[in-house]
Design a protein that fits this description.
The protein contains 7 helices and 6 strands. Helix 1 packs across helix 7 and helix 4 packs parallel to helix 6. Strand 4, helix 6 and strand 5 form a beta-alpha-beta unit. The protein has one domain: NAD(P)-binding Rossmann-like Domain (Rossmann fold). With 213 residues, the chain is an alpha/beta fold. The two termini are 32 Å apart.
Length: 213
Amino acid sequence: MLRSGVLTGRTIALAGADPALVAVLESLGARTATVNVGSPSHLSEPQTALGRDGPPRSLVADARPAFEAAGGGYDGVRAALDGAFAAARETAVACWIPTGEAGSTADASADGGTRTATGAGEIERGGQIVFIAPAPGAGRHAGAARSGLENLARTLSTEWARHGITTVAILPGDTTGEAALADLVAWLCSPAGAYLSGTALTLDRVLQPVESS
């Protein structure tokens, strides 16, 4: 149970997030902005979000809708990974990585991409990225999508560590409910979750009560 207002003052960017997740984050005080990958101004309400609370502190990229929309399989894996990386790259370059400092992973859009925080003083040093992977039973090759997102989190945690950017992947189980998932995301986006990076949180194994004989 997270205390009321634990996310107050934090703007969280969301890509593909379930409305239930958005509701939980906002109920804890967060301001949310939607990432529209590839659009000229990829954060919705950019002036309001940046003007009031500054650049987003966290990005939550839910790869499940892209995987499912592509019908799973290899197309689903590619859609999930491409969408998650694009959201991470565009948000990091726009908000957390100063111009000219992007490494090889992000330099494709470092100079040509549109920055939401346009002035040097508006770049927030450091940020957090949370990927949400499909459940194991979400479709054919869901396991590959899960492994790919875990590897993406590990790679970006190394590539962008010098910018203070942390990355985590959540691997839900087939029985993981949206409420439990939302609580975990909220915890990761709170100050308590800031130390985690380059890892995956696997929720496949649900603890069952032990029956006494």
